[in-house]
Design a protein that fits this description.
The chain is an alpha/beta fold. The protein has a domain of 130 residues: EAL domain (TIM Barrel, Alpha-Beta Barrel). It has twelve helices and eight strands. It starts with a strand and ends in a 6-residue tail after the last helix. The mean pLDDT is 86.
Length: 242
């Protein structure tokens, strides 16, 4: 999400989402984002997964499930293609509305991922309280993973725990090929980060030709190697692809 300000130019979410959360504006912004994401990606080629972040205030909204259900139907998006990412702050607030909304989203057929895993205080208890589909390993553990035995041990433990609970894993903030290769060996199934692709406008991925054009530059060449390696991994073992 980007704010195109008439004077300040493009403003990243780190500069305005906290204010939006505090004022409650995150609810209409979030609803617009959900509708826009479905409207735009419904026109794209392929059956890729769509991941959307939900803030604590959004998850407490009594209108959240209705907005999502209507948007899925309006744009013909299969629910199983949609994954909503939440942080543990959603669960820390002990809200029955939040838990009810998450359960209803699962009943719709969408998936729920726990983002920024490992940097909070009670993440393990949350895994017991809600059946997440995916754990996203925070980039704090990815940074320097090549040289830190502690980070390697933590990542390996998270991937083993996730596998035992039937949850997928995604490593965040991957910026080098060495990181990607090591994370794969440590059990990570998927990765995201600047090595794979930097944030770009949606039209860069609307068609196969657009994707090819977007990947010709040296800045995104990492995605080509990533895709080839992942396709090979899928053929060898679908459950352990990365």
């Amino acid at each position: 999400l980007r704010w195109y300000h008439p004077k300040r130019g493009i403003i990243g979410p780190a500069d305005f989402l906290e204010v939006a959360e505090e004022t409650g504006l995150i609810v209409p912004i979030g609803e617009w984002s959900i509708r826009q994401a479905f409207a735009e990606t419904a026109k794209w080629e392929g059956h890729f997964r769509i991941a959307i972040n939900l803030s604590p205030t959004q998850v407490r909204s009594p209108h959240l499930v209705k907005v999502i259900a209507q948007s899925l139907h309006a744009h013909g998006i299969a629910p199983e293609r949609v994954e909503f990412e939440i942080t543990e702050h959603v669960l820390m607030q002990e809200s029955s509305i939040s838990m009810g909304n998450l359960q209803k989203l699962r009943e719709l057929g969408t998936r729920i991922a726990l983002d920024d895993f490992g940097i909070g205080y009670s993440s393990l208890s949350y895994l017991r309280r809600f059946p997440f589909d995916r754990i996203k390993i925070d980039k704090d553990f990815v940074d320097g993973v090549e040289s830190s035995a502690d980070n390697q041990a933590i990542v390996s433990s998270i991937t083993k725990l996730a596998e035992a609970l039937g949850m997928a894993t995604t490593a965040e903030g991957v910026e080098t090929r060495d990181q990607l290769d090591l994370l794969r060996r440590l059990g990570c199934q998927e990765a995201q980060g600047y090595l794979i692709c930097e944030p770009v406008p949606g039209e860069n991925f609307a068609t196969a030709d657009a994707v090819d054009a977007a990947m010709r530059g040296g800045a995104v060449s990492g995605i080509l190697a990533y895709r080839r390696t992942r396709e090979a991994s899928v053929k060898q073992s679908p459950r352990r692809a990365s």
